[in-house]
Design goal:
With 159 residues, this protein is mainly alpha-helical. The chain folds into 2 domains: 1-96, no CATH class; 97-159, no CATH class. The protein is 21% helix and 6% strand. It is built from 4 helices and 2 strands; from the N terminus they run αβαβαα. A two-stranded antiparallel ribbon has the order 1-2. The longest helix has 17 residues, at 17-33. The protein is elongated, with a radius of gyration of 21 Å. It starts with 16 loop residues before the first helix and ends in a 6-residue tail after the last helix. This is Nucleotide pyrophosphatase. It comes from Halomicrobium mukohataei. InterPro entries: Alkaline_phosphatase_core_sf.
Amino acid sequence: MWTATVYNLEQALKSDRYAFRGFNKGLETDLEAATGLNGEPIARSIHRPDEVYSGEYLDRAPDLIFDQRPGVHTGEAMGQTESFTEPSGWNAENVPDGMVLFHGDDIEPGEIDPIQITDIEPTILDWLGLSVPTDMDGSPVKAIFNNSSTPAQRSTETR
């Protein structure tokens, strides 16, 4: 059972950076020690924002991000509703590993090395011959295309 309380510090301690860092470290320690209904830890890992996110809005990222251990589902508003629920209906588990399938004449059959989710949209834009915005995270994955295909032979356009 969750025994610690999680606070929203958006306006409280952020003005005092030293106090906030100390509180944030304490919160990280509490998250590491937090266990679910079965007594197992709820967090597989805990990250600082710059370990997970990048870009000009990094300052808007959560102060701590925890990766739920497999089989753990935490509510979207811990402390306001039931903290732990079974995955069902709209309550699901997010997992870092997934699968993406590409099919068509331009695609090389087989498997490729793992890619990031942020690479999927630039790959599709490149496949369609559309320019990839320069502020988009990720890069086209040329390895999906067979060598004789147009997408494999042309340079990726950016805008």
